[in-house]
Amino acid sequence: MDRKAPKLLVVVGDRIDPLLAEYALKVAVRLDLAIIVLFVDEDSGGRGAGQGREAVEHFEAVVEGEAAEFSARALKMAVKVTTVVDVDDRASAIAQLRKQEPEIRFILADDENDKERGTADRPYPRLTVIRPT
Predict the structure, then answer these.
(1) Residue 99 domain boundaries
(2) CATH of the domain at 85
(3) For the chain, how many structural domains are there in total?
(4) pLDDT digits (tens, 9 = 90+) for 13-28
(5) Which segments of the chain have a pLDDT < 50?
(6) Which of these, 104, 103, 14, lies nearest to 65 by C-alpha position?
């Protein structure tokens, strides 16, 4: 990706919620951002010993389809998309990607805390703004 272009990081599990996808694309178009979609499989606990290769392959297959569908929608709107797959915990995956991609200016994700509190009925997912360093 273009290292100078500001980016929107979209954090998902194995599926991209349609509302999240729509909102991410609208934000990217309006603010002229490239998108990085981070698929995180926290359930696999990493690729270490004891993890079934079948589970990892299944996750990658699901992600591939989701990524292709989202990328096709983004292409129609002239939005550049890169996908990243990580099997670490969500916070670690985000931190690592932010180190690799300092151009990330926004993070868009469904807030797990809202789901736990039962307040996940907001009209849009939570958008976090990152100050440039």
Answers:
(1) 7-129
(2) 3.40.50.620
(3) 1
(4) 988 999 999 999 999 9
(5) 1, 48-50, 113-119
(6) 14
